[in-house]
């Protein structure tokens, strides 16, 4: 009985080992037949679409750029199979730097900022080599505002006056400095230079503590409208030859005319220095993907324009113009195919 018991134990151990091996082999076989997730399937082919993760750098919450970034993301996701797009808050210069370093795939910035980035000028310590143009969005103008009863008629008349070009290092301050420069002036020629926000500048103007302030913004601008209610305003005109001098300094600048009547007291059309809000893209992005993104945006312009009134300016005639940076090859290919550029 003892011998038989030992023999039975050995048989049981052997059967246990065989059972375990059988379970392992069965599990391995099932693992090899594991079905892949079907979340990103191309509806046309029925096959799985490769996931394309993209990040868009927009602007701060509460501004125009943040919802605009969300609209761009939605269009891309709805029209490019497999695209998963996230939107990050940012700012013009930071967005250019982020796209260049590959932190972002697409970014919103200004055309003059893109030109500065490409050349390594102003606040960019070295040229950015990994940014390219995707689309022009809408124009903004440097509006050099004076009260309607002011004796300041031309930009040269600002010498010895009190001005507010905006916070130091921001676009308005840089552009005002350059406008003064081509007119033979500098900040040191002013009686006083305040570097405060647009709303604070408007308050100073209303209190007659400054003579001119120069926001770069869309029009009509709420802060300028506020000043205009108390007696009217005028904008100082930028003459064509001075614009040409500025264009040589920065190819991202544009020449914009703001119509008479835009503000109370403004009786004449006024030419101003401008810059376009634009979309930039990684230059090293695959050409076919950049092509698809350009196609998706252009074919859904109406959806994009619903975000903000300023985007009414985004048309076939403006989308590839005055970007301050060359188009991405894939974007250029699409624009040529549809006749946007010749």
Automatic annotation (TrEMBL):
<feature type="signal peptide">
    <location>
        <begin position="1"/>
        <end position="27"/>
    </location>
</feature>
<dbReference type="Pfam" id="PF16868">
    <property type="entry name" value="NMT1_3"/>
</dbReference>
<dbReference type="InterPro" id="IPR011852">
    <property type="entry name" value="TRAP_TAXI"/>
</dbReference>
<protein>
    <submittedName>
        <fullName>TAXI family TRAP transporter solute-binding subunit</fullName>
    </submittedName>
</protein>
<keyword id="KW-0732">Signal</keyword>
């Amino acid at each position: 009985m003892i011998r038989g018991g030992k023999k039975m134990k050995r048989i049981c151990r052997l059967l246990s080992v065989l059972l375990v091996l059988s379970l392992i082999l069965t599990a391995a076989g099932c693992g090899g037949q594991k079905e892949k997730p079907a979340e990103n399937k191309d509806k046309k082919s029925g096959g799985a679409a490769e996931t394309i993760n993209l990040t868009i750098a927009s602007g701060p919450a509460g501004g125009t750029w943040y919802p605009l970034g969300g609209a761009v993301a939605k269009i891309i996701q709805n029209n490019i199979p497999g695209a998963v797009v996230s939107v990050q808050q940012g700012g013009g210069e930071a967005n250019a730097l982020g796209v260049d370093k590959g932190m972002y795939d697409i970014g919103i910035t200004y055309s003059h900022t893109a030109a500065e980035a490409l050349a390594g000028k102003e606040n960019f310590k070295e040229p950015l080599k990994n940014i390219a143009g995707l689309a022009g969005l809408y124009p903004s103008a440097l509006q050099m505002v004076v009260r309607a009863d002011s004796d300041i008629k031309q930009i040269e008349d600002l010498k010895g006056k009190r001005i507010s070009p905006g916070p130091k290092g921001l676009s308005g301050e840089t552009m005002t400095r350059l406008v003064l420069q081509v007119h033979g002036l500098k900040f040191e020629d002013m009686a006083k230079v305040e570097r405060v926000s647009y709303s604070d500048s408007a308050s100073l103007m209303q209190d007659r503590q400054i003579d001119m302030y120069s926001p770069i913004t869309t029009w009509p601008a709420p802060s300028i409208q506020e000043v205009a209610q108390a007696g009217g305003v005028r904008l100082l005109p930028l003459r064509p030859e001075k614009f040409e001098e500025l264009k040589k300094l920065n190819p991202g600048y544009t020449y914009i005319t703001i119509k008479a009547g835009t503000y109370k007291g403004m009786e004449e059309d006024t030419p101003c220095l401008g810059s376009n809000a634009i979309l930039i893209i990684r230059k090293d992005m695959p050409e076919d993907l950049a092509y698809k993104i350009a196609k998706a945006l252009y074919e859904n312009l109406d959806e994009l324009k619903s975000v903000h009134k300023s985007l009414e300016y985004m048309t076939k005639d403006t989308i590839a113009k005055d970007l301050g940076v060359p188009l991405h090859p894939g974007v250029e290919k699409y624009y040529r195919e549809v006749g946007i550029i010749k």
